[in-house]
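FAQ

Q: What does a record look like?
A: Structure on top, sequence underneath. For example:
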C-alpha cells in the first residue's frame, strides 16, 4: 500500500497533502498534478509520546514523529520505536493506525531503519 504525494507538472515541486495551487511556482492552479508514491525512507526530525489516546487506538501509548522523507517531504507518522532519537534514520510502512466501527484509517508507521 502507498501514500501518494502530488507533483506539480509545471515545476516538479512535490506536495503532501494535496494543494489546489502549487506553492513553489504559483503557476499551476489547474489541478495539473501527478500522483507519486511517497518514499518510505527518511530521517526523524522530532517526536513526542502520547498517553491519553481515544479508545479505538489499539495501543497503550503512541509515539508520533515528524519525518523528512528522501524527497524532502515532511510527514507525520506513528513511531514503532522504543528509544527514538532525533536525527535517526527510519523506514515507514502504510498500516492501519486507527480501527473504526465501519472503516479503518491508514497512516505511516515508522521503524528504525
Ligand atoms: Zn509548480
Amino acid at each position: 500500500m502507498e501514500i501518494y504525494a502530488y507533483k506539480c507538472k509545471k515545476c516538479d515541486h512535490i506536495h503532501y497533502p494535496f494543494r489546489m495551487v502549487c506553492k513553489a511556482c504559483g503557476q499551476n492552479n489547474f489541478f495539473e498534478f501527478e500522483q507519486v508514491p511517497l518514499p518510505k525512507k527518511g530521517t526523524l526530525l522530532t517526536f513526542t509520546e502520547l498517553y491519553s489516546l481515544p479508545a479505538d487506538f489499539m495501543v497503550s501509548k503512541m509515539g508520533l514523529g515528524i519525518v523528512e522523507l528522501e524527497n524532502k517531504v515532511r510527514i507525520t507518522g506513528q513511531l514503532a520505536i522504543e528509544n527514538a532519537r532525533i536525527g535517526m534514520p527510519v523506514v515507514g510502512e502504510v498500516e492501519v493506525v486507527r480501527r473504526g466501527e465501519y472503516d479503518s484509517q491508514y497512516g505511516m508507521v515508522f521503524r528504525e531503519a
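Q: Is there anything notable about this one?
A: The pocket of zinc ion is lined by residues 8, 10-11, 13, 22, 24-25, 28 (CB under 6 Å).
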